[in-house]
Write a structure and sequence with these properties.
The complex is a heterodimer of chains A (about 625) and B (about 325). Chain A is an alpha+beta fold and about 625 residues long. Chain A is built from nine helices and 37 strands. The longest helix of chain A has 18 residues. Chain A is globular, with a radius of gyration of 24 Å. The N and C termini of chain A lie far apart (about 55 Å). Chain B is about 5% helix and about 40% strand. The relative contact order of chain B is 0.20. Chain B has four helices and 21 strands. The chains are: A alpha+beta (about 625), B mainly beta (about 325). At the A-B interface, helix 8, strand 37 and helix 9 of A face helix 1 of B. Chain A: This is beta-galactosidase. Chain A: It comes from Levilactobacillus tujiorum. Chain A: It is an enzyme of class 3 (hydrolase).
């Protein structure tokens, strides 16, 4: 297959030769290895890559992925990281309008008619920057003679991949893991990996989040080997019966074999203390399921995020251990009953925040230390819930939320704000995805990536269809998708408020943003159909968070009021050297000669961009503490 | 032995001087206010205290248009005219004691209490007045009462206070009140207690703006170690204490005026810190928080321009030696 640059222009081409999305479990060779979480089957490709930058597709280095290509002018770039923060390409912050505002007139493909595909919009875009990445690798011992795939955890915004000169595949969706099978093209000794990253594609219309606009390989990249028998996918359900004591556990497995699909799988549940609770063994098959009913299970919640450990041990038909897959399991009962959401029989109160991934040095390439600190701040401020605004986060974040009992609204990577709301007015004349069939599959793919990757996390309570993308049949299809694959969680979408024609079909909850308390009260007093939550409230821009008590008072009066998520967790601003004093300074939108911009609107956090708390955090700690 | 029951009063040609053990205060008729506040030999004033009406625009203010609606108060914060001065000695109003009226006094005048009231007229349309009355007793204690005269047609106030500009930046301050930065609509999380603040921190909001407010304060003690007095080699820390009168007050203690904060788009644009800007507030507008593009502060936390406002507080005299 040949890579086509025209894929950038086609909303119907968003994944080529990608492996199907699956759960975020990891395979290990032995139990001991699983305990250390360092798998011999994994080889990191983070670090220095050779790199060439082009200001537009016309100037990109054609054929740079060929082994004999002259790459002597390539420079070096750190992966993960944003191309712009390395000095290539202009930094820009903009909120709702598209980044090309005032520079290019654009309507999304097919939004003005099925006969208007808008060819060349991005493939011939004179400002669509391109990063050409090259990396040599030799397989580590643990990966040799096995099936090997490559995982890109985040590449913004469209990427083409080659190995040893062979085209491997294409991916969009900046914030979901993209995985490709490298096995057919691997060679002994050194291999040449090449990635071409385009800043914009039709995905740009779907990724109009209120954030700095970056490009590049900004999350980790790794090679992953599959042993002879491999757990491809794992779907865990761990719920409680209505007595809130009895655990119902099931795990569905999909397995693959390099040659012969034969052997056995032992599934064992351990307590947090390591005591074996239950075990079963089944013959290996392409698909298999195990189930257990467990009396007196330890419930998982914010205060006591108790996690059992599931261990899957895969043996070949000679009885040799081939793969070990561990996964943390939390039992909880989430239900919508009499129009109120309950967790383990208690009304759910969301003391939440919206959290963009942000680091003032590294942009959205956040570190483990950033995440650990965020979890500590959450705990100290009695924050019990997080909305992953407005894309899937690094997978470690979901594990940390499992461990620390942080309830998650897991958002699909979707925001098309600029296509339907202009200068505060709802004007959806070129809205995507709307009900356009040409855009529907792309957003369903984003939903599937979100679901498959994070479906096993007890912390995830809500699948959110994305943010501010108006309403339409495409959103209905997404809502149906989530409900079809996952009967154990709720769907969330704020667009339910924007177009009531879809009210019954795109969200299990009434979700609004920035409604004053009196308007929320009016909803709650007038035969509300669904429980209410603020997907965004208390806009903490600058010196703010006044009047929070009026929201918290609604908790006392209305059981159907379930709290919400403060906007937002951390200011988006970047450390630069002040050109006058030479001292470090935090800069925001418009400070990079970036126009059109939304300037300081990037800074709405409970924390300053350097992760120190704003004074208002003590107010949040007080009120959230009262309902913790 | 110093007189501890009577104030020494100097009926000058340009000023009224009051002194006692460890203090000397000068009220200047030409400058229209308290020009000098010296305790233990240390000057606390760089310019006369003035009514404070403005706060540096918050992001929420900008979004909901409050700064535009309240813009006349920015002018009043920067410019005002002292249009009347009244002096009361031991409860008796006296004619303003300037020449030749002051020829009837001597070099040995004393009093138990003296109240000097300055009336400031704002450049707003319509204009209004603020009276600032300083009552001094023999211990050097000043009780300061501020009266704002409401006028129909005046917009809501961003703030109402009295601003002291000290000659050099403070080392820090201690206060009894609520922890952290608090506002009328954001103080539930403030922990009551005694708090120390090192230096004069400006809350580093991305765009510098109103910050550093401390609500419900019983007292604040500001510590400096430097002066502008060329003959004073001493760098030992010294302090000035403000206490509540009938009711707790709000204050901020920053190195900048609201206008300096207002003009900066980034922290690094703020000038080098040279002063202490200590403002005592009788009324503080809430900061709001519903959104940053239109929603107003909750009504309970507005400051009406068309009704009277009064507040008072005390500056403690020097510690008796």
């Amino acid at each position: 297959m040949k890579a086509e640059i025209s894929w950038l222009d086609d909303p119907q081409t968003f994944r080529v030769n990608q492996m199907p999305a699956h759960s975020d479990h990891r395979g290990y060779a032995t139990v001991a290895e699983a305990d250390t979480q360092k798998s011999r089957f994994v080889q990191s490709l983070d670090g220095q890559w050779a790199f060439a930058f082009a200001r537009d597709p016309q100037h990109r280095p054609l054929g740079f992925y060929q082994p004999d290509s002259d790459r002597s002018d390539f420079e070096s770039l750190t992966v993960p990281g944003h191309i712009e923060l390395a000095g290539y390409g202009q930094i820009q912050y903009i909120n709702t309008a598209y980044p090309w505002e005032g520079k290019h007139y654009r309507r999304p493909a097919y939004s003005q008619g099925a006969d208007q595909p808008e060819p060349g919009m991005f493939s011939q875009d004179p400002e669509n920057t391109v990063g050409a990445y090259v990396r040599h690798f030799t397989l580590a011992a643990g990966l040799r003679h096995k099936r090997v795939s490559i995982e890109f955890d985040g590449v913004e915004q469209a990427m083409y991949l080659w190995l040893n000169g062979h085209f491997v595949g294409y991916a969009e969706d900046s914030f979901s893991r993209s995985e490709f099978d490298l096995t057919p093209y691997l060679q002994a000794g050194e291999n040449l990996l090449a990635v071409e990253v385009f800043k914009h594609s039709t995905a740009a219309f779907l990724e109009d989040q209120d954030m700095f606009r970056f490009s590049g390989i900004f999350r980790s990249v790794r090679l992953v080997a599959k042993p002879r028998l491999h757990v491809e996918d794992l779907t865990i359900q761990a719920t409680l019966t209505p007595d809130l004591e009895t655990g119902e556990f099931s795990a569905h497995l999909a397995l693959s074999a390099a040659e012969k699909l034969a052997g056995s799988v032992t599934a064992t549940l351990f307590t947090a203390a390591g005591e074996q609770l239950w075990t079963t063994t089944q013959a290996v098959a392409e698909e298999l399921a195990v189930k257990a009913t467990l009396p007196h299970v330890h419930r998982w919640d914010h205060h006591d995020p108790y996690l059992y450990q599931l261990r899957l041990s895969v043996f070949d038909d000679a009885g040799q251990l081939v793969e070990v897959v561990p996964y943390a399991v939390g039992f909880r009962r989430l239900e919508l009953k009499d129009k109120v959401i309950y967790l383990n029989g208690q009304r759910l109160i969301l003391n939440g925040v919206n959290r963009h991934e942000w680091d003032a040095q590294r942009g959205r390439a956040v570190t483990v230390a950033d995440m650990a600190r965020d979890q500590r701040i959450f705990k100290a401020a009695h924050i019990n819930a997080v909305r992953t605004c407005h894309y899937p986060d690094q997978d470690l974040w979901y594990h940390l939320c499992d461990r620390n009992g942080i309830y998650m609204m897991a958002e699909t990577n979707l925001e098309t704000h600029g296509t339907w709301q202009k200068m505060g007015v709802v004007e959806p004349s070129y809205n995507v995805p709307g009900s356009l069939p040409q855009w529907t599959l792309a957003i369903l793919d984003r939903a599937r990536s979100n679901y498959e990757m994070f479906k096993n996390h007890p912390a995830v309570f809500f699948w959110s269809l994305g943010n501010e993308s108006y309403a339409g049949d495409a959103l209905v299809a997404m809502d149906q998708f989530y409900h079809t694959v996952d009967p154990t969680r709720l769907t969330h979408y704020e667009g339910v408020y924007r177009n009531r024609a879809y009210a019954d079909r795109i969200s299990d909850v009434e979700s609004r943003m920035y409604d004053p308390p009196r308007d929320i009260e009016a909803y709650l007093q007038n035969h509300p159909a669904k429980p209410f939550l603020n997907c965004e409230y208390m806009h903490d821009m600058g010196n703010s968070i006044g009047g929070m008590g009026s929201y918290m008072a609604l908790l006392e009066k209305y059981p159907m009021y379930q709290g919400g998520f403060i906007w937002d967790y951390i200011d988006q601003a970047l450390w630069v050297k002040d050109e006058v004093t030479g001292q470090p300074a935090l800069r925001y939108g418009g400070d990079f000669d970036d126009r059109h911009s939304d300037y300081e609107f990037s800074g709405d956090g409970l924390l300053f961009a350097d992760r120190t708390p704003k004074p208002a955090l003590q107010e949040v700690r007080h009120y959230y503490g009262q309902y913790d | 032995m110093a007189n501890t029951t009577k104030l020494n009063v100097v009926y000058g040609d340009v000023t009224l001087g009051l002194s006692g053990p460890g203090f000397r205060y000068i009220f200047a008729y030409d400058r229209g206010g308290l020009e000098s506040l010296v305790q233990d030999g240390k000057e606390w004033l760089y310019r006369v205290p003035t009514p404070a009406f403005w706060r540096a625009t918050t992001d929420n203010d900008r979004g909901n248009g409050f700064s535009v609606a309240a813009a006349p108060w920015l002018g009043a914060d920067m410019f005002r005219t002292c249009t009347a001065i009244n002096v009361v000695v031991d409860g008796q109003a006296i004619p303003l004691p300037i020449a030749p009226e002051n020829n009837r006094y001597t070099a040995k005048e004393t009093a138990t209490t003296v109240t000097v009231t300055f009336t400031y007229t704002t450049p707003t349309v319509p204009a209004t007045t603020v009276d600032v009355a300083y009552t001094v007793t023999a211990t050097g204690q000043l009780t300061i009462a501020v009266h704002y005269a409401g006028r129909a047609g005046l917009p809501e106030l961003p703030a109402l206070g009295l601003r002291f500009l000290c000659p050099t930046p403070a080392m820090g301050f201690d206060y009894q009140g609520l922890s952290g930065e608090t506002y009328p609509d954001r103080l539930a999380g403030g922990q009551p207690g005694t708090h120390h603040v090192e230096g004069l921190p400006v809350t580093p909001y991305l765009v510098p703006q109103e910050c550093g407010m401390h609500m419900r304060t019983q007292w604040v003690k500001v510590t400096r170690a430097t002066t502008q007095n060329n003959s004073d080699p001493d760098h030992q820390p010294f302090q000035l204490t403000l206490r509540q009168a009938a009711h707790p007050f709000a204050f901020s203690c920053l190195p900048y005026t609201p206008e300096e904060l207002e003009n900066a788009t980034h922290m690094e644009e703020l000038p080098l810190a040279r002063r202490t800007v200590l403002t005592v507030y009788g009324a503080v507008r809430g900061v709001g928080g519903i959104d940053s593009w239109g929603s107003d502060v909750e009504p309970a936390y507005h400051i009406a321009g068309d009704i009277d406002h009064d507040f008072s507080f005390v500056i403690a005299g020097p510690v008796a030696r």
